[in-house]
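Re: the pair you flagged

First of the two:
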Amino acid sequence: MIRLRLPAVARVIAGAYRGFVTRPHLAALESVDLKGPGMADLLTARIEIIEPTMVRVPRGWFWMGCEIGRDDEKPLHRVWVDAFELSAYQVTNEDYACFLTAMGCPEPMRWKDPNFNHAKMPVVAIAWHEAVGYCAWLNRETSMPYRLPSEAEWERAARGGVEHSLYTWGDTPPELLPDYARRWKTGPEPVGLYAPNAYGLYNLGDNVHEWCADWYDPSYYGHSPKRNPQGPTNGNRRASRGGSWRHQVKVARTAARSSIPPEFKYADYGFRVARSSIA
């Protein structure tokens, strides 16, 4: 990884790296002293990438859904998920800044809001298509198969190998978690401040909702395949999982499902990346 504080010339390099240089790119390049200190390194360096810390989730069967939950969590059913990897943390502002710089994308709506702009906070107000775009960029830069997780993968990972528990830690109510009353007052918190689940994954179930790859169907569990379900083939809303800093109850049950249209950009929506197993 190379960390760069990129001036205008870096945006030129970013444009060239993507296969095009526009008139504004050329104008910026003409204004820069390419023989100045450090320019040789800058011109030969790749744009910064922060590769996520990935946790391997083993293959296996698990009970998906909840018989005492909402209708869209029923029926409780047995599901097989192949081994895969999931990022230990939600994608942060620091991570996402590399993507913005490399691709010249506009900043998310809450980017400069002090309640949301700590480097280690999860990036928020990201549409589903933007999360997919980040994964595609990470793929190109690393040659690794990054993507969004499926709902089944997310729940498999959140359960941490423990069946039938309401939450990632067990059945203890969220209000009894350490510091619960003091957390999430005006926005999300930096990732990884508290203990992970049994697989070593942080904030699964709290902080922000996380986009999943699937289309959402409230009746999908009644006819979903038993092995590696990927969701319906089409729909109007994309599935998401996890809790939200702005909800009355800040932590979601492991089986709880949520969804919004893919173009929506909410201040309590972020994402984490998955990766097809490479081992």
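Second of the two:
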Amino acid sequence: MVEVKDQKFTVILREEPEGGYSAQCIELLGAISQGETRKQAIANIREAIEGYLEAFPEELNQLKRKREPFHATKPSKKEHSSP
């Protein structure tokens, strides 16, 4: 998890066979980065997320809406029975 602008983002960090690490943000598919070390890759993905959100500020608003709690209720049998 990486925190940017008071939001937590899920990051996949993968060690690359040729060396270094790649990082991708699950919520923002365009936010990808890499680094020679895990620490550097995490710092770089944080910067990539910040840049992505600066370029596409509406994405943050959409993410906030997606994360709002949703409550559904199951209709009772009475509501489904025919008269």
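The helical segments are 38-55, 57-66, 77-80.

-B.
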